[in-house]
Structures are given as structure tokens and as C-alpha cells.
Amino acid sequence: MFEPVTIKDIAKALGLSTSTVSRALRDTHEISAATKKIVLAYAKEINYQPNPIALSLKERRSKSIGVVVSEVANSYFSQAINGIESIAYDRGYHVILSQTHESYDREVINVQHLASRSVDGLLVSLSSQTEDISHLTSLHERGLPIVFFDRVADEINTHKVVANNEKGAFDATSHLIKSGYKRIAHLTSSTQLSISIERLKGYEGALKANNIEPNSAYIKHCPHGGMIYQEMEDAIKELMSLPEKPDAIFVAGDRLSTGCLSVFKNLKISVPNDMAIAGFSNSDVLDLFNPSLTSVRQPAFEIGKLATQMLLQLIEAKYPVEEFEKKVLETDLFVRNS
């Protein structure tokens, strides 16, 4: 049976107390440089590895962080996760991923499971169904570090990292208007989601800036954010059956943008002849579509990195943090031929 070397074994071999060995390995200032050198050299020689479970019990740290997203396969989230991992692993933390698939119930279960696994903190992007955030509020009040990214909860006072959704939506809608379209529809996720609110504001702002009155019949919400094909198809059929049907559509989500192209293809709606489209998407697959899709690209990797840096700052802080920041990163508009 595998028996790992313990601090006791090192202490016995070197004729030192276990507390001296423990402090020397932790590199604390109470131990002389000479003693530290002897202990570290011996530990290296016998290939001593600290027991992570014992360490976590001692430090009350598991050196792991939980990540809650709607879907790992979503190109935005997969890039954000790469950003999260790039920081976490460098700092010695494991990343535990969970997917909500846009379900509030699943989000509650995932969050409770991660908390029960004693993660040191959570990185959360809310599901499109989430309105009640008491499952997060109670953990936050008990001192679990939580940082929100992309889809945030305003009610919880903590660090948040988002893209400039309003400006991204404003730029995409303005691009459609400059291209000569006047009747621009908007397909978005659930009404209460922070990204939906901000992107709707940008869309309406661009219309007003160009003296076009927003038309509520042109605004369609898909509560599952593109996870359910039928929701998107119904929304587009409703738009196409309006007496004055739209000539362009601004789509406010990664999953919705690619889903929308499938709906158009199935309904034999030609892009951009019957309908022009601009969307929010980080997917490189868009370049393969013909016509390809003009899209707002978010700095997903940077958002993931920054959110993780902020979370680790909370986890490793010696004193409770009381000043929180909301970081807003700029988006880019990739103009393609749709």
C-alpha cells in the first residue's frame, strides 16, 4: 500500500520537532535560514509531497474554485473558461466546472454541490431563468467569495466583470442602419438577464440616434437563450408574419446567433436578401457560414482571466474586502457580408 512521507518522518530523520519542520516547509520567518535549507534539501531528496487533504483541513482551503456557466460548448463560455484556467492553474488552484443549461433549478443544485465540496470561491454567470438569487446571497453572506462574470446579479455586492454590452449592441444595430436597413428586429434572451437588459438598451439607443422609433412588435425574447430551437423558430415566424415584416435582425447572444441561422435555413429565408443579420458571437464557425455573420465579439478569454484574478484576490485576502469593482471590457464589431 502507498504510504506517503509525512512531516513526522522528516522530523524524526533530522532530529527536529514536527512544528519546526512544518514551519520550515511553509517558509515562515520564525525559522533560521540554515534550518530551512536542511529541511527543504531533505524534503526534495525524499520527494516529499504535502498531503492536499491535510493542507486543506489545516488551512481550511481546498485550492479549488467552482465555475457556474450555462453551457461549456457555447463558444463564449469555452473561451472564458480557458481564461479562468490560465490563471487558476498557474496559482495552484483546480477548476471545477458545472453547467446549468439555462435552468434555475440546476443552477441551485450546482451551486449547493460546489459549496458542499468546500470550494474556496465561485465564479458565476447566471442562467437565463434565474430571478431569485437567494442560493447565492446566503453563501455570500456566510463569507464564500463569489465573483460574477458576463451575467451578473446587481443585488450582491462583490466584484463583477462584464463586456460593454450596451455599446456592442449599439454598434451592431448602427451597422445595420448604416447598411440601409430601417425595420430592425431584436431577438434576445430572457427579460431579467443583465446582458439582455444592457443589449436591448444599446439596440434601442441606436434606433433613436437614427430617428427610428423602437417597435415593441419587433422585440422577441427567447427565455432559454437559444437552447430550445422551437422558441427561436416561433419568434422568427411571428416576425415574418407581421404586416410590415423586418428587413434585418440584431441577435443578442452567442447561442441565439448560430441558432438563428439554422432557423433561417430551415424556413428558406435567404440571408441577407430576405433578412440581414448581426449578432453577438465569439464563434469562429461564423466564418464558414455563407453568408457569414457580422458579429459583436466579446473579450471572453480576458473576462475569464480578470474574474479569476479578482476571485483569488478575495480568497487570499488577509482581511475582509469591502471595496468591490465592476470591470467593463470593450467589444469589437467584426463586419462580414451578412
TrEMBL record:
InterPro entries to which the protein is assigned, alphabetical: Cro/C1-type_HTH, HTH_CRP, HTH_LacI, LacI/GalR-like_sensor, Lambda_DNA-bd_dom_sf, Peripla_BP_I, RNA_pol_sigma_54
Every HTH cro/C1-type domain range: 6-49
Transcription found in the keyword field: yes
Gene Ontology molecular functions: DNA-binding transcription activator activity; sigma factor activity; transcription cis-regulatory region binding
Chain ranges of the HTH crp-type domain: 1-44
Name by which UniProt lists this protein: LacI family transcriptional regulator
Pfam families in UniProt: LacI (PF00356), Peripla_BP_3 (PF13377)
CDD domains: HTH_LacI (cd01392), PBP1_LacI_sugar_binding-like (cd06267)
Gene3D superfamilies according to UniProt: 3.40.50.2300, lambda repressor-like DNA-binding domains (1.10.260.40)
Keywords, sorted A to Z: DNA-binding, Transcription, Transcription regulation
Segments forming domain HTH lacI-type: 5-59
SMART domains for the chain: HTH_LACI
Species assigned in the record: Pedobacter polaris
